[in-house]
Amino acid sequence: MHRRDFLNPGQLARTAGQVAAVLEPVAPSEDSTEEIALLRVARRAMATTFEVVLPFGTPDGLAAAEAALDEIDRIEAQLTVYRETSEVTRLNQLAGRVSVPVEAGLFDLLAACAKLSAGTEGAFDITAGALIKAWGFYRGPRRVPTAEALAEARMLTGMHHVHLDAETHSVRFNCHGLEINLGSIGKGYALDRAAEILRRDWSISSGLLHGGHSSVYAIGTEPGSERGWMVGIRHPWDPERRLAVVRLRDQALGTSAATFQHLEHEGRKLGHLLDPRTGWPAEGMASASVIAPTAAEADALATAFFILGVEKAAAYCATHSSIGAVLLQDGTTDPVTIGMIT
User: Fold this and answer.
1) d(CA 342, CA 291)
2) Mean pLDDT calculated for residue range 110-130
3) Which of 53, 112, 130, 330 would staple 156 via disulfide (CB 3.0–4.6 Å)?
C-alpha cells in the first residue's frame, strides 16, 4: 500500500446520500443518524487524486472546488522535481552557484521546512534529493547504493547547506549538487493553499480536502456535527481494520507508511522513507499519523515521527500542544496514541 492510499476513504465524511453523479458516494459512518449529501470534486495531481468535499448546496460549490483544485495544480507546477519548468527544479539547478530569488509563498515554505528540520533533529529534511536518487526512489531502478555513492549523497544533504535570505526572498546552497525535494510536505502545503482559497475567495466555512487519502484538511465541521469531520486511519496491512477514528476541525491529518515502495536487501525489506541523518531507510515503525493545525505540518511530522520512533515523537508532542499522533511500531498490533487526539 502506498502512502497516498493510507487514510480510509470510507471514513472521510459522514453521508449516506448520493453526490454529484460522476463521483462515488462516501460510505455512511456508524454513528450517522441521517443522510447527508455531499458534493465531491476530484482531480489528478502530484501522482495521486485530490478531492474537495463540500456540503451539497454550498453556494457556488462546484466553482469553489474547481478554484481550489486549480490552486493545487499551480502548486504542483511550482514544487515538482519531475518537470524542468518548475521553480524548484530551477532552484536546484542554480542555487549551488548563485542566490536565487523565489516566490514569497515558496520562500515561506522553505523557512517553515528549516524550522521543522531543526525541531525534529533533522529527521524531516527536504534536502534529501541526492539520497532519494542514490536509492533509485526518484525515477528508478530501486537499489542499495554503493558505500561511495551513499557517502557522496550524504555530503549533499542537510538544511545547514541552505541559506535563506528573508530580505530578498532568495535561496543559496553552499554546495553544488544539493537538491531540494518537497515530496514529504508538498501535498499538505497544496491542501493548505487550497483551503485558503476556499475560505478567502468563496467564504467556505465547512469542507474537507484530501490528497490521495494520506493528507487531509478539514474546514470547520461536517453538517449536523459540532465535533468536526470524522476521518478513519486505516491499518497498514489490514484494510478492513482501523487504527483510530478522529475528528478534525480546522485541522489536518497526515499519515506516513513504508509498505508499498520498498526493495529487498540481505533478507530485509527496506522502505522508501529515508532517514536523512544516516542515509538509510528508516526502520522500526509501521505507520505514523499526525494531527496538526496545518496539512503541511501534519505531512512533515508524519514523516519525522516515522523516522524518530515513539519516544522522540512523544517528546515532540509534549512541547507542542497542538500536535497529536497515532503510531504503530513494527511487530505490534495496537497503536500508541500521543497528545491531542479527539
Assistant:
1) 10
2) 98
3) 130
Q: With beta carbons less than 8 A apart as the criterion, state whether 81 and 89 touch.
A: yes
Tell me how crowded residue 16 is: count the other CB atoms within 10 A of its CB: 15
Q: Residue 6 and residue 313: Cα distance in Å, rounded?
A: 20
Residue 124 has, within 13 A of its CA and on its CB side, a CA count of 29
Phi, psi torsion values for 117, nearest 5 degrees: -65, -45
Geometric angle at alpha carbon 245, from 240 and 251, rounded to 5°: 135
Residues with Cβ < 8 Å from 137, sequence gap 6 or more? 261, 272, 274
Instruction: Output the nine-digit C-alpha cell for 334.
Output: 495496537
Burial of residue 224 (number of CB atoms within 10 Å: 0-12, 13-18, 19+): exposed
Q: Is the dihedral of CA 196, 338, 14, 7 positive or negative?
A: positive
Query: Distance (Å, rounded) from C-alpha 280 to C-alpha 102?
Result: 31
Q: Output the DSSP codes for 66-92.
A: HHHHHHHHHHHHHH-SS-TTSHHHHHH
- Summarised one tens digit per residue, pLDDT across range 163-177 is 999 999 999 999 999
Please return the burial class of 124, using the count of CB atoms within 10 Å of its CB with bins 0-12, 13-18 and 19+. buried
- Sole residue written with cell 474547481: 66
CA distance from start to end of the chain: 26
295-308 and 104-119 helices, crossing angle to 10°: 30
pLDDT digits (tens, 9 = 90+) for 10-23: 445 443 222 222 22
* Grid coordinates of 282: 528508516
Whose grid coordinates read 501522482? 47
pTM: 0.90
User: Angle at which helices 310-318 and 295-308 pack, to 10 degrees?
Assistant: 140
The region that residue 125 occupies, defined by phi over 0 for left and psi between -120 and 50 for alpha, beta otherwise, is beta
Helix or strand (DSSP H, E) at 205: none
